[in-house]
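Bit of a strange request maybe. I'm writing a small parser for structure token strings and I need a real example to test against, not something I typed by hand. Could someone generate the tokens for this chain?
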Amino acid sequence: MEARSGPDSERNLTRAGFLLGFAFAGFFDGILLHQVLQWHHLLSLVDAEAVRDIRVQILADGLFHILMYAIAAVGLWLLWRGRRGFQNPGLDTRVLAACLLGFSAWQFVDVVFFHWILQIHRIRVGVPNPLSYDLGWLAVFGVPTLALGLWLRGRAGSGPGAPTSTRRGPAIAACMAGFIMISGLVAALPPPGTSSALVLFRPGVGAAAAFAAVAEADGRVVWSDASGEFLAVDLGPNGRGWSLYGRGALLVSTATPIAGCLAWSRI
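Reply from user aminoacidic:
Good idea to test on real output. This should exercise your parser:
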């Protein structure tokens, strides 16, 4: 079928750029994090006996790459269908912008959906605070490509034939930023069933008062620093972590979203 150079051709090219960027990001993630650095596999945190077999983990990684191949194949087909659209001024820049936005979209989909909602893996598994790696990955690979893609799309939008939807870029970026912030707070909450907590008391409370506060909250001290004001405690199923704030605690890792990331630390 003959390729066209009208609006349909332009849409095919921008969609192709987005899909190719999305697939390239998936390949980048899988090759670097699954195979080279070996920080995680696709199903690293799935709590099922059958999935713990390394052969199953590698199979899941392979199926993930097959999905990325399929997405890339659709992108290449759309690229071929709309190839004559490159005759239009500025379209090459819009395709590059779409590719960067696709690359960025995968980073946010991966971290928010697979890491924080489904919790089937993290950027780096087995570290005391995996949330810091997730946020660092977005800061290095997600946010810059999103910003560059929006900037290129806005720049190309001043040319002839540019879609009017380019003006919605800042609003979309703001919505994504808000969604990521909310998801990050949710991800900072302690893992389900966590009974251990790190508790930091304000200076001057003293070891005796700190230990008494833990006992009153139905907790048990399992570790203490030299001052006795920074404790690792086991609150058990009936522990009242919130009550420690009334006894001089500044942070309780299972009681607030801000301190919740501390609950991922191992005692």
